[in-house]
């Protein structure tokens, strides 16, 4: 019995540089599990294309005319929640990382990423996971630490979590990986994965990075604690 073919991922490529856009399209088109369904040269065109084409993944640049990638990400994430957004940029500034992820992006890659890593990232995003390196998670944590003190925990929003799920949420917010959480709580890593999935479902969160942000906003974890 052969393994089933991986699902085809429909991708919209957004970049204001014609050569870069063509290069990204060529790289993605070389993989038979990915189909580039459209291209856009600015944020406004990306929003229009996303509505019409309904891509699984939007490969989004940051600095673009008419509307930048962060503003476009915010609109697409709100209007088309089925589209996952992967930011690909030359800029590594904390403002870009934080702005993109809080706008609703599910991952962040630099343009110097190797082609095979880009393809793997698209499948990760399309599969419903967030593409988070520890450095990106800690960028968000550090940025949240510079925000005003959060309000007291929102007991209504968090009321559905079990005590163990609350523990896992706190550790996720501190930037720990699933394996590190498993070691801390002395449980199997598969158990942690199950807890994380339930937390996201109960709190209606798109991915792990949204859980980090929510935990700081609601006071589950306090900056500097």
TrEMBL record:
GO terms for molecular function: DNA binding. InterPro entries: CheY-like_superfamily (IPR011006), NreC/VraR/RcsB-like_REC (IPR058245), Sig_transdc_resp-reg_C-effctor (IPR016032), Sig_transdc_resp-reg_receiver (IPR001789), Tscrpt_reg_LuxR_C (IPR000792), WalR-like (IPR039420). Keywords: DNA-binding, Phosphoprotein, Transcription, Transcription regulation. This is DNA-binding response regulator. Residues 10-126 form the Response regulatory domain. It comes from Phytohabitans aurantiacus. The modification 4-aspartylphosphate is found at residue 61. It comes from the Bacteria. Residues 154-219 form the HTH luxR-type domain.
């Amino acid at each position: 019995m052969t393994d089933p073919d991986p699902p085809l991922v429909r991708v919209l490529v957004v970049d204001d540089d014609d050569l870069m856009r063509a290069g990204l399209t060529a790289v993605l088109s070389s993989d038979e599990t990915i189909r580039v369904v459209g291209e856009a040269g600015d944020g406004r065109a990306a929003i229009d294309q996303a509505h019409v084409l309904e891509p699984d993944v939007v490969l989004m640049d940051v600095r673009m005319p008419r509307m930048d990638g962060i503003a476009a990400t915010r609109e697409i994430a709100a209007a088309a929640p089925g589209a996952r957004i992967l930011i690909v940029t030359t800029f590594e500034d904390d403002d870009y990382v934080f702005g993109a992820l809080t706008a609703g992006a599910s991952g962040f890659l630099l343009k110097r990423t190797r082609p095979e890593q880009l393809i793997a990232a698209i499948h990760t995003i399309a599969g419903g996971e967030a593409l988070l390196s520890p450095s990106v998670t800690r960028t968000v944590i550090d940025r949240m630490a510079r925000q005003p003190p959060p309000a007291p925990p929102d007991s209504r929003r968090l009321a559905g979590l079990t005590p163990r799920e609350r523990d896992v949420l706190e550790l996720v917010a501190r930037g720990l990986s699933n394996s590190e959480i498993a070691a801390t709580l002395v449980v199997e890593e598969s158990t942690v994965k199950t807890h994380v999935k339930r937390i996201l479902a109960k709190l209606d969160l798109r991915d792990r990075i949204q859980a980090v942000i929510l935990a700081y906003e609601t006071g589950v974890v306090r900056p500097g604690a």
